[in-house]
């Protein structure tokens, strides 16, 4: 396995194992008086349904709070937070250096990114496809024009991956996310060795669209957040840096074994040494509460540990 993936895999294993090592649960949310106003959320499509669940449950506590949720992709969150057109920015990746530089140039400090859940990018095929696993080199040969991960030739047919029978002769149809998606950027980094996609990759605006296209297209494969999985597709096992094939399951994502794992974030504009507005702070407290983390699991993602929650609450409330 290539060295960059090995280093990334080890780093993620350490981070995620630490993130989930505590057996304690998140705390019960305590309702506070005076919480009202509007929350505008602009960002990750991957987190669209999760944001909606949080919004519905938060409104049950505070019926006077209004939500507007726009889920066009993680790349739309930083400019919206920077320019003040949203007060919550869901992101399925960390902010890029250029995004941080733009924000700090406008405000003189860095935004605050709160870890709220753990997800993984999975490779999906339809349930009838006999293939069960792939290496990073094979993934790169399917999706990338550059093949920086070491494949000698592009993969265009399933028989090149050892698939026999009627499926083997089928041409691979490739689906993925568009360039504003955090999933798109992280997949490039982890699975394409920072390479470029083939022009033949069908870029779609949402993870649900990828899953649907894979399920109903002939000989298709696509990448999307694991939390978007449906019964019409199956997630393939991916080889880690030792060559061991690791299935995408809640358990392997939780343990840090699955190679394409990631944190999900909510980004806010919090000046140093100042408190967030009450509405924003209480919404984030709710997300990090027992109820909020149950919603994470309900939506197919992995909740973070109480130790990580304590760390996030500490930076959230620092002033």
Can you characterise this structure?
Helices cover 36% and strands 20% of the residues. It is built from eleven helices and twelve strands. It has helices spanning 3-20, 48-61, 77-83, 97-107, 136-143, 182-191, 207-216, 250-255, 278-287, 290-298, 306-317, and strands spanning 37-43, 65-71, 89-91, 112-126, 133-134, 173-177, 202-204, 220-225, 233-235, 237-239, 245-246, 261-268. The radius of gyration is 20 Å and the shape is elongated. 44% of the residues are buried. Residues 1-24 have low confidence and may be disordered.
Layout of strands and helices, then pairs:
Blueprint: H1 3-20, E1 37-43, H2 48-61, E2 65-71, H3 77-83, E3 89-91, H4 97-107, E4 112-126, E5 133-134, H5 136-143, E6 173-177, H6 182-191, E7 202-204, H7 207-216, E8 220-225, E9 233-235, E10 237-239, E11 245-246, H8 250-255, E12 261-268, H9 278-287, H10 290-298, H11 306-317
Parallel strand pairs: 1-2, 5-10, 6-7, 6-8
Antiparallel strand pairs: 3-12, 4-8, 4-9, 4-12, 10-11
Helix pairs in contact: 3-4
Keywords:
319 residues, alpha/beta, seven-stranded mixed sheet, three-stranded mixed sheet, 12 strands
Unreliable residue stretches:
1-24
Helix content: 25-40%
Helix/strand-derived category reads alpha/beta
Mean pLDDT: 91
By oligomeric state, this entry counts as: single chain
- What's the shape? elongated
What is the rounded distance between the termini? 45 Å
Count all strands and give the number: 12
How much strand content do the residues show? 15-25%
Give the biggest sheet: 7 strands, mixed
SSE arrangement, N to C:
HEHEHEHEEHEHEHEEEEHEHHH
Round the Cα radius of gyration to an integer and report it.
20 Å
- Counting DSSP H or I runs of 4 or more residues, the number of helices is 11
